[in-house]
Amino acid sequence: MVLKRCNPGWAVRLVFMVLFVLISGGLSQAAVETLLAVGYADNAQETRDGTGSPFSVYQLEGRLELVPVSPWGVEVYGRSDYRDYWRLADNYSLEAGGRLERTVWEGRLAVAMLTSILWYRDDLQPDDARNDYQLASELTLYLDERWSAGLSLTYVWADYRGRVEESTADASGPGESGQGGGRSPSQGEAVDMFSRSREDRLWTLGGRLECHLSADWQTSVVVRLADCDSTIRRESCDELAVENNWVWQLAWHWRAEAWWHLVWRRYHQDSERNRKVGALLAWQWLDNSEIALSWQLLEADADRDDDNYRAMVSLCALKWFF
């Protein structure tokens, strides 16, 4: 079912613009980025029968370094994001966080602690509305001028705002069916439905290797292992993700990027494989301004046909740095 957009969100965008003026005018030491973009998503819901729509994006981010004295670094940041679908309902988010970092071993090893809170609302997919609370730790080892390696451990508690309908069969524990998942009802047996709140607790262990192949070429590989424990049994899963990103600094202030991501998820009764490929071409036409064109393809290959989809997103963005 397509949700028609009934509220253009001008009030929210006005708040974002006021926030931009306050940050840029009141905190001269803050680094501020603002982005305006238009694009098209041919499957905005990312479902098997999703609907396409043009959209606009409004982003604002501010960072402030509180302790710029080596070897310590303390930084706080805030970020807002509003995505206005022209034919569908919108989604928007606010995020605030901080980072504490210390370098040791003559600057070759960086140890960091991070925390953040994310407020996300989605009028297009109301079940995805949630508050995220994150804690993370990172280690980064600079092997030489070209190579660096990192290790991270992240914990996220996602508190979803709505209630989810679940059947007694879905909620049954392992060992009650031949497949090790929820109990399958026999033919003609009534299935009771009930609603409960959803909370996800996600642990992620990640590794990163980065290489500057030359002054203009850079690549990185990221591997992540994740475990999601959800109060909704069918949402609990194990995850393995692999990412590869490339960045080329071209002549005349041009930059090109390319990336591919692979994700495997194993649920109690089925599995899912996600693929993402994309590219970006950017031009810094002024010292504090950049224009970029990007394209991205997402595909989901799941055991359940209802979870399969293909989505393509193209975007033209204008960014300012202050």
The CATH superfamily label reads monomeric porin ompg
Which bin fits the share of residues in helices?
Answer: under 10%
The rough form would be described as globular
The top-level CATH class is Mainly Beta
Query: Using only CA atoms, what is the Rg?
Result: 22 Å
Assign the structural class, choosing from mainly alpha, mainly beta, alpha/beta, alpha+beta, or little secondary structure: mainly beta
What name does CATH use for the topology? Porin
- The tally of domains stands at 1
Distance between the termini: 42 Å
| Uncertain spans | 1-8, 174-189
For the record, the CATH architecture stands as Beta Barrel
Topology as H/E string?
A: HEEEEEEEHEEEEEEE
Mean pLDDT: 86
Strand order of the largest sheet: 1-2-3-4-5-6-7-8-9-10-11-12-13-14
Number of distinct beta strands: 14
Characterize the biggest β-sheet.
14 strands, antiparallel, barrel
Fraction in beta strands: over 45%
What is the strand and helix layout of this fold?
Blueprint: H1 10-26, E1 31-41, E2 53-67, E3 72-85, E4 91-104, E5 109-122, E6 130-142, E7 147-167, H2 168-171, E8 193-212, E9 217-230, E10 237-249, E11 254-266, E12 271-286, E13 289-302, E14 309-321
Antiparallel strand pairs: 1-2, 1-14, 2-3, 3-4, 4-5, 5-6, 6-7, 7-8, 8-9, 9-10, 10-11, 11-12, 12-13, 13-14
Q: Can you tell me about this structure?
A:
The chain is mainly β and 322 residues long. It has one domain: Beta Barrel (Porin), CATH 2.40.160.40. The chain contains 2 helices and 14 strands, in the order H-E-E-E-E-E-E-E-H-E-E-E-E-E-E-E. Strands 1-2-3-4-5-6-7-8-9-10-11-12-13-14 form a 14-stranded antiparallel barrel. The longest helix is centred in the first third of the chain and has 17 residues. The protein is globular, with a radius of gyration of 22 Å. It starts with 9 loop residues before the first helix and ends with a strand.
